[in-house]
User: What shape does this take?
Amino acid sequence: MARIDLTGQRFGRLVAIKDAGYTKNRSRVWECKCDCGNTCFVRASSLKYGENKSCGCLRSDIYHENLKKAYKWSQAYDFKEHTRISALNAKISSANKSGVKGVQWDKSRKKWVAMLWLKGVRVLYSRFAKKEDAIRARREAEEKYFKPILEKYHRDKE
Assistant: This one.
């Protein structure tokens, strides 16, 4: 099969500079210069079929652009009154051993701890001898602090 000269051709953000030879599996590789200034080595077939369009900076740019969009959405839809509404309804962490969000065992004091944060402020942090009491305290705090916000923004607990 005849070798195709890709020198000077553009593939997305990449420009083929020179033929860099073959890989162990006999794939032709080209040294390419990316628009961002990096040099990389890419299989000729990946260039021709559009599998590689940059040195990796394109993926990074897309990631950061999506992050900006998610942040804007969060600010417009999810972030109300200095509180992330979705966090109020978030599922329990797999690391949680008590089975109840905001309730954990304090090994050093041998007590159950109930805690709740809202708007960056700790509104509940109490220790209990019985797990049931800690759960009750957490549920009452959720009712007092979370329920009004969830109702105001029409987000019932799921």
